[in-house]
Design brief:
The complex is a heterodimer of chains A (about 475) and B (about 350).
Chain A (H helix, E strand, L loop, with lengths): L1 H26 L23 H18 L4 H9 L23 H4 L12 E2 L6 E2 H14 L4 E2 L4 E2 H22 L23 H13 L10 H8 L4 H4 L16 H10 L6 H18 L7 H42 L4 H20 L9 H10 L18 E6 L5 E5 L2 H19 L10 H10 L9
Antiparallel strand pairs in A: 1-2, 3-4, 5-6
Helix pairs in contact in A: 2-3, 2-6, 2-7, 3-5, 5-6, 6-7, 6-12, 6-13, 7-11, 8-10, 10-12, 11-12, 12-13, 12-15, 14-15
Chain B lengths: L13 H19 L7 H18 L4 H8 L2 H4 L2 H20 L6 H12 L15 H29 L1 H11 L14 H26 L7 E2 L2 E2 H8 L15 H4 L5 H7 L17 H6 L17 H5 L3 H22 L12 H7 L7
Antiparallel strand pairs in B: 1-2
Classes of the chains: A mainly alpha (about 475), B mainly alpha (about 350).
């Protein structure tokens, strides 16, 4: 009797667990989704398509790699503007530990970054340029520098281009286009194909494109933050290879760009940006599937817009978290450089961190939402360049200065700036990200000591006197 | 910034519900948070100390001890009942006021920024100091600065006529119970908060700047060791009718409960003495030190007690009128902003306080 009871319980448990897994699995993976386009006669069975976005993710990865390797302007522009000839995938490259299924980016999609870059003004970078022009200018200057490193002005173009491209192309396209105006009723409706001859509807593909720009693996929401982080770092082939074919399919099994950064913050255990955003994409896609090829009702579109708001508000926070983190890194580097002026290795690290800080900060301007005073404040605090030494860039203590604009010949102009005041600016940037964007992961928090010790001391309100 | 998802309001009175929840947390926190003086554990140690004092040193039997400690003359007096009413009114006001007041974090952040601009001490100049030593230094310095600031604030509350009008709220108590510590006019409450924010913020900013981010406090059960010692060793008896005295040599360093009772005395010879909280050294430095005494005296502000405590409304609003009068008087006489009893004849002062009662 007892044995029968245990067998029954075990069987019930196994069935429940299996059901839960199957159910959970179905709800936490982006695709495949059925073809719902009414009247479609072709043989396609999966309506998911975002290979153009994956192509751009690969262009971005390779552009970054090429810049840091000292590639020529022609090679760099090939990745930025696209090319008819083969474009070698430089990152991620296949290895024994992490096999990938792509060597030529054009095999994934023949596309470019420049055509989709933000065309609004970017005031936080000298030269009064649009986002696209800023990227082109950075690439040009980067090609003329030492493998992307301009010691004199304190610019790391590899980082500047990479971090700003993520914003000016991916974040901008997703939140200022596909999850914005393309959710309107008369724009890419769900009862028509996205383009003539395509097997997916207008809304299906708009949403898919947004997901592709986000950069998460289709099965990423079933993994831990650490696993997603390790996939992006090419360290966890097992977690990446969802279909078990022994190779990482770069179209659906890889984490890129902001999705990678989200996992890096989430692994601290305080935030859950990656899952929140990815799940909102999955839930939103289901709303479109449920419309079964009909135009979305107002209520369905309202729900979809709700998901879009979740995605974009959290996406913005991911970028703000990065600004917070690198403002802390820059502060820490300055603290050390003050103690050991002239340390070239440290200076290189400092310039890299500043490039990341600036690239992410500029990205916050590209979502189509005007940041207003907050954006102006952020740009002024960070300035157009890091503090560098006049005599030798790494000797910050000797007449420190900072880029403040460009002259008529396109050369950077510089002004005096003290290290101490710039360090305070970095603290203020962190405060701004906390107050205005509500960051909570707060990596490299340079004021955490104040909050921590204040917490131990206890509230100062109404402290009894006598 | 990007709009957060808009959710329909759950209930129409959400702010009120939120306020009530904060109020409840605040009230409970007064008795359940070991960082607060009225924490039940400290009230119990105060009872224990009183018991031992009366039983072992005053040779009362157990029945007498309980009768004395829980004397209805004290606990059920009008003054004590007013303490309870004021406690609740003050908490209601403070929960609402709190978000408007500057915090220690704001002070610390501003000062931390400012310190970057000075060239006397580089950032993190003592960051190599051991964790234990920096924590010990921080805890000790904070205790000393905080205790001195309390003394200085208390001194000003007595000596500046404008502030004294508000501080009478506290001194109008004719019987003292641990709850009397919260019997403070809201204006005074705001000043206490600012004082605390400035002291905490200043100490935190300076130490973090000099010693680096790994700063900590020496604690027992998560509470500042000095706080737990001060409260655990009977701080609540400062407002009580159990007159615990320390040996004279100790009273020269630490303020005994009996010394604080003298501070509440309505006798002219005890006026403006013993302002200190934990330490009495500040009073010795300022010339306001008195040893405790066995002689009987009463608590209160004499003839003014009745006027100030006529109704709750009088307690809360009369100080504003009197404060305004004191400003006019100051303008008329071009006198110093400091009150000084040396200028009042003993006879005048005694007349002012002729209606004092025995405790």
């Amino acid at each position: 009797m007892k044995i029968a009871y245990f067998i029954a319980m075990a069987a019930t448990g196994a069935i429940c667990a299996g059901t839960a897994f199957a159910d959970g699995h179905a709800n936490h993976v982006y695709g495949p989704y059925p073809v719902t386009l009414l009247g479609y006669q072709g043989g396609e069975t999966n309506s998911v398509s975002y290979s153009g976005q994956v192509g751009r993710q690969l262009l971005h990865n390779s552009l970054k790699k090429a810049m840091s390797s000292g590639a020529s302007i022609d090679v760099l522009n090939g990745y930025f503007n696209g090319s008819d000839s083969a474009l070698e995938l430089l990152d991620p490259k296949s290895s024994d530990k992490f096999k990938v299924d792509v060597t030529n980016i054009n095999d994934v999609s023949k596309t470019n970054l420049s055509g989709k870059a933000y065309k609004g003004a970017i005031n936080g970078w000298p030269g009064n340029m649009t986002g696209k022009e800023v990227l082109a200018s950075m690439i040009e200057r980067g090609a003329a520098s030492n493998k992307g490193f301009d010691a004199e002005h304190g610019y790391d173009y590899t980082q500047l281009v990479s971090k700003f491209a993520m914003g000016a192309v991916f974040y901008h396209q997703a939140c200022d286009n596909y999850l914005d105006e393309k959710l309107e009723a008369d724009n890419k409706p769900n009862n028509k194909p996205y383009k003539k001859g395509k097997h997916y509807t207008g809304k299906e593909h708009s949403w898919d494109e947004g997901f592709g720009y986000w950069g998460a693996a289709a099965h990423g929401a079933t993994l831990s933050a650490r696993q997603n982080y390790d996939i992006a770092k090419k360290k966890d082939m097992g977690a990446a290879d969802a279909n078990g074919d022994g190779v990482v399919n770069l179209k659906s099994e890889m984490n890129y760009a902001h999705a990678y950064y989200a996992s890096s913050f989430d692994k601290g255990g305080v935030t859950d940006y990656y899952n929140t955003i990815t799940q909102a994409f999955i839930d939103g896609r289901q709303i479109i599937v449920d419309a079964k090829g009909q135009a979305l009702s107002n209520s369905a579109r309202s729900d979809l817009k709700g998901k879009a708001r979740i995605i974009c508000s959290n996406w913005e926070k991911v970028i703000a978290e990065a600004v917070f983190k690198y403002a802390g890194s820059v502060y820490g580097d300055l603290e050390k450089l003050k103690a050991t002026p002239g340390d070239g290795k440290l200076y290189r690290k400092y310039v890299k961190h500043w490039g990341e800080l600036k690239g992410f900060a500029l990205s916050l301007h590209t979502s189509g939402q005007n940041l207003g005073e907050v954006g102006v404040k952020m740009d002024r605090l960070i300035g157009h360049g890091p503090v560098v030494g006049s005599v030798s860039p790494a000797s910050l203590n000797m007449m420190p200065k900072q880029v403040d604009g460009v002259d008529g010949n396109g050369n950077f102009t510089m002004k005096d700036r003290t290290i101490d005041s710039y360090m305070v600016h970095m603290l203020k940037v962190q405060k701004l990200m906390e107050d205005e964007f509500g960051v909570t992961a707060k990596n490299n928090d340079k004021l955490s000591g104040i909050a921590d010790i204040a917490k131990v001391l206890g509230s100062s309100d109404s402290a009894e006197n006598d | 910034m990007q709009g957060e998802p808009v959710l329909p309001p759950a209930i129409g009175f959400a702010p009120m519900a939120e306020y009530l929840e904060l109020f409840q947390t605040d009230i409970l926190g007064q008795f359940l948070n070991p960082k607060k003086r009225l924490f039940l554990g400290y009230l119990f140690t105060a009872f224990l100390i009183s018991f031992l004092w009366l039983y072992l040193l005053r040779h009362n039997n157990v029945k007498q001890v309980f009768k004395t400690i829980f004397s209805p003359v004290v606990w059920l007096s009008r003054s004590s009942k007013l303490d309870v009413v004021c406690f609740f009114i003050n908490r209601v006001l403070f929960v609402a006021l709190r978000p408007m007041l500057i915090t220690q974090i704001a002070v610390a952040t501003a000062l931390y920024h400012f310190l970057h601009y000075q060239n006397l001490f580089p950032l993190g100049v003592f960051s190599d100091t051991s964790y234990a030593l920096s924590a010990l230094l921080f805890t000790t310095c904070f205790f000393l600065l905080d205790d001195f600031a309390r003394f200085a604030m208390h001194y000003a509350l007595h000596k500046v006529p404008l502030l004294w009008e508000f501080h009478k709220f506290h001194h109008s108590a004719e019987t003292l119970t641990p709850l009397t510590v919260t019997r403070a006019h809201p204006v005074e409450g705001v000043l206490f908060t600012l004082r605390s924010a400035v002291v905490q913020g200043t100490t935190i900013a300076i130490f973090l700047f000099l010693f680096g981010q790994q700063l900590n406090l020496v604690t027992i059960l998560g509470v500042n060791v000095f706080v737990i010692l001060f409260h655990g060793l009977g701080s609540n008896l400062r407002h009580s009718h159990i007159s615990i005295q320390y040996p004279k040599v100790v009273e020269r360093i630490l303020m005994s409960p009996a010394q604080h009772h003298l501070h509440h005395s309505s006798d002219i010879k005890h006026f403006d003495k013993n302002f200190g909280v934990a330490l009495s050294v500040w009073d010795r430095m300022a010339g306001t030190f008195l040893h405790s005494t066995n002689a009987p005296f009463t608590f209160g502000i004499g003839s003014e007690t009745k006027q100030y405590t006529k109704t709750i409304g009088h307690m809360y609003f009369l100080p504003f009128i009197k404060a305004a009068e004191s400003i006019c008087s100051l303008a008329r006489t071009k006198n110093t902003i400091f009150r000084n009893y040396n200028y009042i004849s003993k006879q005048e002062a005694n007349e002012e306080f002729k209606e004092t009662r025995k405790c």
